[in-house]
Amino acid sequence: DMTLEACAQQCQVVVVSVPLDHTLDIIRKIGPLMPEDALLMDVTSLKSQPLEAMLRYARCEVVGTHPVFGPNVRDFANQTVVLCPGRGEKWKRWLIDLLKRKRAKVKECSAAEHDHMMAIIQGMIHFSTISMGHVFQELAVDIDQTLDFSSPIYKIRMDMIGRILNQSAELYCDIEMMNPETIGVLEAYIQSCQVLLEHVKNGDRDGFVQYFQQAAEYFGAFKSEAVRESD
Predict the structure, then answer these.
(1) pTM higher than 0.85 for the full model?
(2) Using H for helix, E for strand and C for coil, what is the string for 14-66?
(3) What percent of the chain has pLDDT over 90?
């Protein structure tokens, strides 16, 4: 088997695909060994720290990427891959062309913009999903029994909870804790939950309706699209 060092020295394209908490160490180890005419890229869920490390430790071209889908997906068609340019244009153009030939959706942005979006898309959504799963345990809810009463939307939500909890706790821990943008988003989420809870506890119908309608107005035309897709 080829060693990490040999791979870095001999390969034109090196992709770092390891757990988040090992990513920076691997980049530090292989970056200095990469030829200047090669490409170093990663496929992690966070971009600022890995991209900064690749630029610092390697002299070659650098692109940060995040395929926004799980490893069970076998076809790139209509799947989004986020690209965060680092250094150089030749390999970036090659990568974009490769992905588009596979019919992937390519979104190019800065590492900072990516991490801000992931604090919402991953940080807040995974946080709420994991905490909901924990409530079932705390209340000793019979999950199978609830499914006997299940609406289609409840079943979809339960599938998402089960899907997340069937994966690596360490991965989701890193997603929540390694993105510095996440804390502010989670604090806003908890504060919003507390406001809604107070409306319910106090029987404040007007407050509840206003809270609901404010969010509904903000979502605008997307609501109709969401109804069509979920139907």
Answers:
(1) yes
(2) EEECCCHHHHHHHHHHHHHHCCCCCEEEECCCCCHHHHHHHHHHCCCEEEEEE
(3) 95
